[in-house]
Amino acid sequence: MSGGGPVGVAIVGAGVISGEYLRTLGSFPDVRVLAVADLDPDRAAAAAREHGVPVAGGVDAALAVPEVEIVVNLTVPVAHAEVALAALRAGKHVYGEKPLTATPAEGEAVLAEAAERGLRVGGAPDTFLGAGVQSALRAVREGRIGTPVAAYTATQSLGPEGWHPDPAFFYQPGGGPLFDIGPYYLTALTALFGPVSGVMATAARGRATRAVGSGPKAGQEFPVNVPTHVSALLEFASGPRANSTFSFDSSLPRTVIEITGSEGTLAVPDPNTFGGPLRILPNGADDWTELPVEGATAGRGLGVLEMARALRAGDPHRASGTLALHVLRTMTAIAESAESGEPRRPGTPVPSGLGEVVAPEPLPAGWDPYEATLG
Predict the structure, then answer these.
(1) Domain residues for 187?
(2) Catalytic residue among 80, 98, 210, 300
(3) CA dist., res. 175 & res. 240, Å (int)
(4) How many Å apart are CA 157 and CA 59, to the nearest integer?
(5) Which residue spans within the chain are E strands per DSSP?
(6) CA separation for the pair 92, 34 (Å, rounded)
(7) pLDDT digits over 265-311, tens only?
(8) Number of domains in the chain
(9) Is 217 part of the annotated catalytic residue set?
(10) pTM of the model
(11) Are 70 and 91 in contact (CB under 8 A)?
(12) In a 10 Å sphere around its CB, with 0-12 CB exposed, 13-18 middle and 19+ buried, how is residue 38 labelled?
């Protein structure tokens, strides 16, 4: 593996989201996409041709490319751990789509394997590295709303079956609005406040079956095996509280993340995007004021780039496996609380002596994904 220059990357999983990763990563001078892998070799080959990637095939073919240093794992959640462990055992760093793995135990095993081998694990969502949430982080750290007290978040829709051609996996264990959309909100909140120390939740399932709304499978019904409306109260170790709703049962679309402080309220941009707007309502003000939004708006893959640059510099990367594991443990605690009717504590120490969960430092406002820094 190379010790300098652009970092070699392999994409594993050539599904819907891979196109965005391939487009974004292909625009960064500090990474090179060298392979695309998928269980369907024709799908991998088509993606590789479209984006000018030299190698296509199965997972073994991607892992065999010596210049590949980071494997980007875009498989379905139940396969995340298997692919991550295979990549680590092949000597590659891993960056995975959310959730980190299907269960916290699998996530702990992946992080332990990486620590034993001296390798890195990163995890989506990387939207919190975008200009919108990063500008919000800087505003909070600068004291623009005083001491953070509470947050209110909501993500509501009728679910992904209206646009996704094969949405059944969203409604199986590891999916649902909590595990599919929840990571964006919980990652942003953890970046703002630090780790979650306790949760209390309720949940419901709106319908027992749903139907595909578009593509060749349109009209086909599939079972719903997870809650589709989840409400959670979150307690953070640093003091603030949050009230969060995650729903695929709402005909009223909503995307809200508001941070209340002792001196005002901050309306944070949609944490499933990379840009603004960012607004503030100081105590006593009659109307919102828009704050400047500075930073990167590149798209999915930003976390892979930041990890690649940190790898070369020997610095910690921000979209870390530690952070992704904490978010997974928090979501699992929410699900367990909703099922039991009892409060749960996700726990903040990472197993195997891998350290504590910390809110990552904001990126410098001038951090530029398109400026070559690795030679």
Answers:
(1) 128-291
(2) 98
(3) 27
(4) 35
(5) 7-12, 31-37, 55-57, 68-73, 93-96, 121-123, 148-156, 196-204, 209-211, 221-223, 229-236, 241-247, 254-261, 264-267, 278-282, 289-291
(6) 13
(7) 999 999 999 999 999 999 999 999 999 999 999 999 999 999 999 99
(8) 2
(9) no
(10) 0.94
(11) no
(12) buried
Residues 284 and 263 in one domain: yes
Contact 155, 183 (CB under 8 A): no
The pLDDT assigned to 355 comes to 52
Res 332: pLDDT? 95
Asked whether residue 368 is assigned to any structural domain, the reply reads no
Contact 136, 268 (CB under 8 A): yes
CA distance 195 to 259: 16
**Helix intervals (H) in the chain:** 18-25, 41-51, 59-63, 80-89, 104-117, 131-141, 176-180, 182-193, 302-313, 321-340
> Which of helix, strand or coil describes residue 156?
strand
Which residues make Cβ contacts (< 8 Å) with residue 82, sequence separation at least 6?
Answer: none
**Contacts (Cβ under 8 Å, ≥6 apart) of 60:** none
Would 343 be classed as within a structural domain?
A: no
Q: Which residue has the tokens 């709303």?
A: 145
Sheet holding 7-12, edge to edge: 55-57, 31-37, 7-12, 68-73, 93-96, 121-123
- Contact present, 200 and 337 (Cβ < 8 Å): yes
The domain that holds 179 is classified in CATH as 3.30.360.10
Regions in the chain scoring below 50 on pLDDT = 1, 349-354
Assigned token pair, 199: 């949760």
Of the candidates 54, 64, 104, 107, the residue with the CA atom closest to the CA atom of residue 87:
64
